[in-house]
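Hello K.,

You asked for the raw outputs rather than the summary table, so here they are, unedited. I folded two proteins back to back in the same session to keep the settings identical. This is the first:
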Amino acid sequence: MNDVQTDNPAEQMIREQLLDRGITDMRVIEAIRAVPRDLFVPARQRENAHSPRPLAIGHGQTISEPYIVGLMTSALRVLPEHRVLELGTGSGYQTAVLARLAKLVFTIERVKPLLDQAFDRLHQTGCSNVKLRHGDGTLGWPEEIPFDRIIITAAAPQVPAQLLLQQLSDGGIAILPAGPGQQQSLIRVLRSGNKLEQDELCLCRFVPLIGKEGWPE
């Protein structure tokens, strides 16, 4: 299959924002290609759906720019047998991409209207392997542990070690932004026994993670 099939906005996004910037995992590319990004943004933002920037989705939240979605997904190294925990459902776009790569996706959102909208979009796009929960994402989903992968789509003050040691499987990978204010880094964490090995992928800017292991409301 060709990397780029046509020059419509979605394919231009894939070429310029993913392939040209080093996102070359074709499972990730095909997952992103399969998800209609314009369905996961508010109607007023549809014409900007494929632009290289985050977009407001209401309630002080955003949908990440395509490159960041591609980078986080690629770095997570999701396999078809994996169970993935996502903290911060948001619009449901990242959820839908993960659903095309993993066995099951468990996603938590604290803003109920966003969760309801995401549920409808995920149903519309045929994501039947997703379970959704309303609540504090930093508490995780204790009844379903362990998770092979964890992705956090809002910025914590620091790496939430307690959550990862309790809910990420040994050998599992987590991807998250962390840091104070505007000084955030996108971090990949590998759990090795009782140790969390970290490496920084890039600088970034996300909305704050609210909750027990995040920022106060």
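The second followed immediately with the same parameters:
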Amino acid sequence: MIIGIGIDIIEIDRIKKACENENFLKKIFTKNEIKYCENTKFNSLAGNFAVKEAVSKAFGTGIRNFNMTDIEVLRDNLGMPYVILHNGAKKISEKKGIKKIFVSISHNKENAIGYAVAER
């Protein structure tokens, strides 16, 4: 059963500019996300940002009662994105009975989009 869906789009250049500030990187992305994106362009970081926003929308809460780093966006061996929830985001998920979150990321030269479906 679907609990919620979320979608977000972000300009890649906006993330690129924000990443010039190291505090932004640490506030938004986990060490694992930063490590994964070191060898890629900013479209991966922008995609991760969009997924974090999409997951918060699937929760129905927006970014409340948790930090952006509480949603960690990683890739499996095939490059498929998935999320790991921590701290406040994990508590919200458990409270809402969410058992699985499916995510998808896409981008073109200018924008990245993230999509999330939360299921019970």
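The chain has a mean pLDDT of 93.

Happy to rerun anything if the numbers look odd on your end.

Regards,
P.
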